[in-house]
Structures are given as C-alpha cells and as structure tokens.
Amino acid sequence: MKGENMMMANIIIGGAIFAYAGWTLVRHVKKSAKGACASCHAADHCRGSCGTER
Amino acid sequence: MVLTDLYKGETAVVVRLAIEQEALKQRLLHLGVKEGKMVRLKAAMPFGGPVMVEVDGQAIGLRRKEAASIEVR
Amino acid sequence: MYVALFGNPNTGKTSLFNCLTGSYEYVGNWSGVTVEKKVGVLRQHGVPVVDLPGVYSLQPLSRDEGVATDFLLTEPCSAIVNIVDASQLRRNLHLTVQLLEFGCPVVIALNMVDVAEKRGVKVDAAKLSKYLGVPVIPVIARTGKGTNELVHAVLAAKDKPHPAIAIDYGAEVENAIRRIAEQLPDDVPGNKRWAALQFLEGNERMAAYLHGRFDLSPLAAIREETEQALGYQAAKHIYETRDRWISEAIAVTAIEFEQKPLTLTEKIDAVVTNRYVGLPIFLALMYVVFMLTFNWLGTPLADRLDAFFSGPLTDWLSRLLHWTGASPFIKALVLDGVVAGVGGVLVFVPQIFILFFFISLLEDSGYMARVAMVMDRMMEAIGLNGKAFIPMIIGFGCNVPGVMAARTIEQPKERLMTILALPFMSCSARLPVYALFAGTFFAREQALVVFSLYVLGIVVALGLAKLFSSTLLKNENSLFVIELPPYRVPQALTLWRSTWEKGKGFIRKAGTFIFGGSVAIWLLTYVGPRGVGVPMDDSLLAAIGGLIAPLLSPLGFGAWQAGAALITGFLAKEVVVSTMNIIYHVHEASGLKKVIAAQFTPLSAFSFMVFVLLYTPCLATVAAIRKETGSWKWTLLSIGIALTVAYMISLLVYQAGKIVGFP
C-alpha cells in the first residue's frame, strides 16, 4: 500500500514537472517568434496587431 | 547672421529657414522653429557637435551644420 | 470601437493610459517612448482604449509616427482623447486642429498645467473649451488627478456625431478642398474635408491610402494648380493659417504672465551639456552604475541569495522530496535540473534589478535626450545620429524593445543600421554569464572586466555601423533634431514600478521558460544514445555539444559543455548559465565556480564571455529584427555577422592572450 502511494507521488510530481516544462517551452518559442509583442506588457490582452510592416 | 553666430545665452529672431532637407524643415516647424520666432542659443557641444537652442521655452538639440542654415537677426 | 489617445510626444499619453486602464505601460521622459499602439480597457466601463505613439502632426516623419496616422486611417474610433501639454500650447494645438477637423468626438486632456504655471503661463480650461467647442479637462497624468472627470466627459461625448471645425483657409485652398472632396469616395475615414486637407498638405500616408482605391492624378493636379495660384507650397499656407487660428485661441484662453525659465533644468543643463565636462560626466555616471551593480552592492547581495539557495532551500527541498518518497529520478530532476538551472539564474536577480533601476532612472529623469545630444558628434562620425543612442541604452535592458525603439529614427538607413548594431548591446540576460565567470576568475577586478565587455559591445556595434555607413548603407541625409524635455525628479513609485516591470520579466522567465529549459536540458543529460541514466559524457547533450566543440577549441573552450551551453543560449541567453549549472552537476553557483575554475582558465573564460556577448541575437531579438526590418535578408545577415564577429574577436583574444602569456 505504502509502495503504491509512493509510486503515485512520483508519477504526479514527475508528470506535473514535465507537463509544465513542456508548456513553458512551447509558449516561449511561440511568444519569442512574435518578436515585437515579446517586449510588450499589453501583449496578453492586446487585440491590435503589433508591427506596421505592410 | 545665422544661428551659430550667436553667443551662448544670446537671443535672436529667426528670419529664414534655409534648410534643404524637407523632413528636417518639417520637424523644426513641428517644434515651433519658424520665421519670426525668438530663439536663444543655450549650449554648443565640442568638436563641431550639436547646438542646443530654446524656442518657446522648449529646448531643442540640432546639428551645427543645420543650425548654420537658420538665418537670424 | 476604440477611444484613441492622441498627443504630441512626451506629453504623458502613456501615463494617462495607465491611469485610465490600470495598466503599467512603459513611461519615460523623452520623445518616442511609445513606438507601438497599446490596447487596454477603460476601468469599470469596458470601453477599449488605445495608446498611440506621440505625433506633432498627422504627417508622419518616422515609423512610430506612422503608427498613429495609420490608426486614424484604418481603425474606427468612437472618441479621441487629445492630451495637450499646457506649457507648449501652440505646438500642441497644431495637432489638435487636425484632430478637430477629422470629425470624430474629441475630448481634450489638459496636462502639465503645473509646469506651465511655473513657466509663467496660465491656461483657462473653460475658455479653451468654449473656443474649440469640445470639452477640456485639466489632468495631472502622472498622479491620475482629473481622470474621473475625463472618463465622464469621454463617455458623454463618445459615439455622438460631432461637427468638425472648419477653419477658413482662404479662397484658393477652400476651392481646392471642395474640388478634391467631391472626388473622394464616401468610405474615406473621417470628414471628407479633413481627408482633402491632409492630401493637400502632402500627407504621404493619406496619399498611399487613397492610391490603393483610385487614380490620384486628378487630385495631384488640383494640388499643383493651387500651389501655382498661391505661389508657394499648400502645406506652408495651411500651416500658417492654422498657426494664426491658434494664436487667436491662445490670446483668448491663456494668460501669459512673466516668462520664466525652469531654473532647475537650466542649472542641470549648464553642467551636463557643458562642452568640456558633458561627455566625461556621462562616462563617469556609467562607471558608477557598473561599480554599484557588480561590485559595491550587487555582488554582495547575490552572494547572500546564493548562500540561501545552496543552503537552506536545497536542504528543505531534498527533505521534502524524501518525505514524499520521491524516487532518485525525481530527486535528480528537481535538485540537479530545476534547482540548479533556475536557481543558478535567479541568484543574479540583485544585479539585474540594480541595473534596471538605473536604466529607469535615466529614462525617467530627462537625461536620456541629453545623452543623445552629447553623443551625437561621435555618432555622426560613424554615420548614425545621436538619437540612435537611446535604443542602444534601452538595449542594455533587453534588445527587443531596443530594436523597436529604433522606430523613432527618421532616416530609414540610419534606422536599419541602428537595428543591426543593437544585438551587440549587452542585454541583462547576458549579465548572469558575466557575473558567474567574472566572479570566478576575476573576483577583484570584476566590475572592470564586465565594464570592458560592455565597452567591447559598444565598440563592435559602432564599428559595424561605420562599416555599413561607408559601404552598403551610404547615407548623405543624416538627420538629427531632438527635443530636450525639462528634467523632473522621478517619483519613487514610478521609479519602482518601471524597475519592477522590467525585473518582473526576468523573474517570470526564470519561473517559466528557464524552468522548462532546465528540465529539457537535464533530460538531455540523463538520456544518451545508449540508454538512460548514463554518465554525463555519454549523454545526448554531450553528443550535441560535441558537434560544435572542435570548432570552438581555437577560442579556448573546446569542451562539449561550452558548446552545449552556447547552443541552448540561442533561445534565451540566461540559459547559458542554467545549462552550465546542470552540466557541472552542482546545486548552487558557489560550487559551480569551483568546477568551472578547473575547466576554464582566466583567459579562456574571458574569451568565452566575449563570445557570449557577441555570438548571436537571441530568438526573440531575431524575430524583432525580422519584423522591424521586414526582410529575412537583413535578419540573416545580422545573425551571420554576429557569429563571424564573435568568432574572430574571441579567437583574437585567446590567441593573442596566449602569446602574451596569460594563463
């Protein structure tokens, strides 16, 4: 019983760490690739499009 | 006489902006440098660097070459 | 439908925007802080508000100004808040007139009444409102005073049709306006009269907008006819007419008592723009900043933090893991991966905050514009102008906003050169690398060594600009005009906020991307081509790092560890330190110091720092360069140059150092 609990704890901790790590990596690359918006504090709720390139 | 002939602290009236570059002329107009305005030379940077002038209580930095094409009286 | 904030540069639009929307956008005391539109929502009312870069008129001369004009041309707005600097009424009203002609409801926020009064001008808001026919609300944008009244006025005026003002421009121009307006399509933004006037004035954005819809030659012909009848440019005539109208407005609404100079500003300027001591003062200030960051204050604080991470925090975490019954794998993941990687970067928070504090101080005080002026002579010699120094200073914090800030440079070629030079400005993400290596190998001369790296970055940036300006990007029409705003004593709250907003990004990055990166890197050290839990030297990371290691060995750091750290550093430069922490299997920086002392010599460490400084802009900067130059060619060139230059200089440093006899 105790062994099973420990097993569960390991899976939960490990799973959480890897899931979070994966999410942050994807998000970082996506955000960085946007360039201009990476420096903007309003980026999260901004509805305008950054950049004036036409 | 041109703007750069003024002594530091001296005031004069702009007679003509003999500046060829359109963008620069526009910018100076935006900042209120135009015929009939009082200008004061506030400082000049060394080695032929920019000068600092005052118009309408607003300080502006511009290059000496361009300041030399602003005629004053 | 947006409520749009328009106004001259440096009149407090963003401060007002922050008050209205409860955001913490970047503010500063020079012209051109905001270079992109920012969207927020009016507190409690749910109305979207957009903050725009400052403009003197609707005819843009630079890229950031184009953003504001384009907004009017392409986005519908329900109301315009025009923020007017009471101490510079004449020049501000030139923009106001054009906005009133546009025909959208306008509310004027009269800011800097206090500065105006100190200068000897008192503006009567009620009279001004009567004269202009729109509400005028006095505000103090820095403190938020008057924002409630402003919000009420905006909500009342919003979406109600408002007659545009019509100034009489005289027979010739009025005739031309009528004839142009007749030909304009009905869907033209704003009032037709406004559109016609903007076209007559030679607004290129307006022309470009119309050009996409129909043939412009008849309109251009009308303009030409008019100019012939006038005997000079229509723009000049329109400007003069507006100026007369404004003179009358001022005569009716502002009382000028004695014109008084701002004594504090005069006194400070007498010193910092002095022809002999101006430049030395700037350099001395920079030196003090470095000493404080790396020597007097930053390093002792970082050492304390380090002691905490490596001692109590690690103990506590490992006991917690033990208690939950975590397996060796999880323990290694947390302690050797996450704590080493994230903690290794976080210990440098004190240095980074101190640096950000001084950058904020520079931005907020008004000294920034003076630095641009003091530096102009030197910048002119290399084919740039003094204004390019502002993006460079911003670049010391982060290269991305630096690249964006280059928008304020009017000349396209000068702007491009500034963007290409920017990645060599040593951003705060490179600071942990210096702090770690200089702290290990040059403990006593740490500040000096780091200072030399910053200087090297500037020298390379300027040298490259010189090269470009004399070859590919020859430029005869260099342009430099800069507004020098009055100094103001930075408010403690604003200063703290700008420091925090910049530093927060670093901490957030440590908690997100660097966390993720550390986990990934640790995993790469854990698995190898021949199984899991392999010795470090047989890991995947070693294989990847080993690919480029031979290339780097002439530079003095041919171990796979250095190669691996550099590759991961492309994603974000802080990760160089995280990777090293994880690779060298120690839980804290002080242990790491011992390990890297065995792997590097002082000379190869310096060579490594030089390489990290120069080698490539990080991913976010590359993306920003791509967006701002609009060209992959220049972006790839920028990366290529960086790699080449870094390789050459590191090689030179290491080989020359060896010959001279450094260890």
Describe the structure in brief:
By secondary structure, chain A is mainly alpha-helical. Chain A has one helix at residues 2-34. Chain A has one domain (2-44).
Set out the fold topology.
The complex is a heterotrimer of chains A (54), B (73) and C (663).
Chain A (H helix, E strand, L loop, with lengths): L1 H33 L20
Chain B lengths: L10 E7 L4 H9 L7 E7 L6 E5 L2 E5 L1 H4 L2 E3 L1
Antiparallel strand pairs in B: 1-2, 1-5, 2-3, 3-4
Chain C lengths: L1 E6 L5 H9 L16 E4 L6 E4 L11 H12 L2 E9 L3 H14 L3 E6 L1 H7 L1 E3 L1 H8 L3 E3 L8 H11 L13 H13 L8 H10 L2 H8 L5 H14 L3 H20 E3 L6 H10 L5 H19 L1 H27 L3 H19 L2 H17 L1 H15 L7 H9 L1 H7 L6 H10 L9 H11 L4 H25 L10 E4 L7 H20 L1 H14 E2 L2 E2 L7 H13 L7 H9 L6 H9 L5 H11 L2 H13 L4 H11 L2 H29 L3
Parallel strand pairs in C: 1-3, 1-4, 4-5, 5-7
Antiparallel strand pairs in C: 2-3, 6-8, 10-11
Helix pairs in contact in C: 3-11, 5-11, 7-8, 7-10, 13-16, 13-22, 14-15, 14-16, 15-24, 15-27, 16-23, 18-19, 19-30, 20-22, 21-22, 21-28, 21-29, 22-29, 23-24, 24-27, 25-26, 26-27, 29-31, 30-31
The tally of structural domains of chain C comes to: 3
Termini Cα gap of chain C: 66 Å
User: What is the C-alpha radius of gyration of chain B, as a whole number of Å?
Assistant: 11 Å
Low-confidence stretches of chain C: none
CATH topology of chain B: SH3 type barrels
Structural class of chain C: alpha/beta
Q: Report the principal-axis shape of chain B.
A: globular
Count of DSSP helices of chain C?
Answer: 31
> Main β-sheet of chain C, in a few words?
6 strands, mixed
Write down the overall mean pLDDT of chain B: 92
CATH class of chain B: Mainly Beta
Q: Helicity level of chain B, as a percent range?
A: 10-25%
Oligomer: heterotrimer
Unreliable spans of chain B are none
Query: How large a portion of the residues of chain C is in β-strands, by DSSP E?
Result: 5-15%
Main location (chain C): membrane
Transmembrane segments (chain C): 276-297, 338-362, 382-404, 416-442, 448-468, 506-527, 539-557, 604-624, 636-657
GO molecular function (chain C): ferrous iron transmembrane transporter activity; GTP binding; metal ion binding
Binding site for Mg(2+) 1 (chain C): 22
Notable traits:
heterotrimer; A: mainly alpha; 1 helix; C: 663 residues; alpha/beta; Rossmann fold; 3 domains; six-stranded mixed beta sheet; elongated
